Amino acid sequence: MPTPIYYHFQQHFKVPAPKAFEWCTTYTPGDHALMGEKDVSRKIENITGRTILLTDTFNIGADTQIEKQKLVQIYPEMRFWTSTHLTGPAKHSQFIYKITAEALDNSHLDFTGLLLDWENEKMSDAEAAQLSEKARKGDAGSWALLAKAMEQDLR
Q: Domains of the chain: which residue ranges?
């Protein structure tokens, strides 16, 4: 049985909420480059107007690849979406995203993560807390890069 790792953070955007939501939920093959990740390819399959299957392939060595499939469900009326890992090392993990308007054409993302760690099934509470903080810092760092890219794109 995997160890559940929960974490949360907020990311501020200098962009109105409707524009931030649209930017965040428009998937492209080059999305990983915005987060500083290299050697990643993305296939995007629109299942419905609000349901998307993302297949990301990470080249991590000479002949080694990791494929992650994610099912994304978008709720535009609430500026909310989920991403559920179907395959890969974080299988069955789920991430929740919500964009909230702020004053003066600003907004923020509320991110909630449930990372299922399949490698460390018997982890202490202290180890789980360390992994939670590492995941939070990593994802928050990626979203800081995405915020910069969004603000540049939408100015």
A: 3-154
pLDDT of 15: 96
What distance in Å separates the CA atoms of residue 67 and residue 46, rounded to the nearest whole number? 18
**b/e burial code for range 100-122 (CB count within 10 A of at least 16 → b):** beeeeeebbbebebbbbbeeeee
- Band of pLDDT at residue 64, cut at 50, 70 and 90: confident
Architecture of domain 3-154: 2-Layer Sandwich (3.30)
- What's the predicted TM-score (pTM) here? 0.90
State the Cα–Cα distance between residues 154 and 58, nearest whole angstrom. Answer: 28
Distance CA 87, CA 71 (A): 10
- Please give the Cα distance from 105 to 83 (Å, whole number): 26
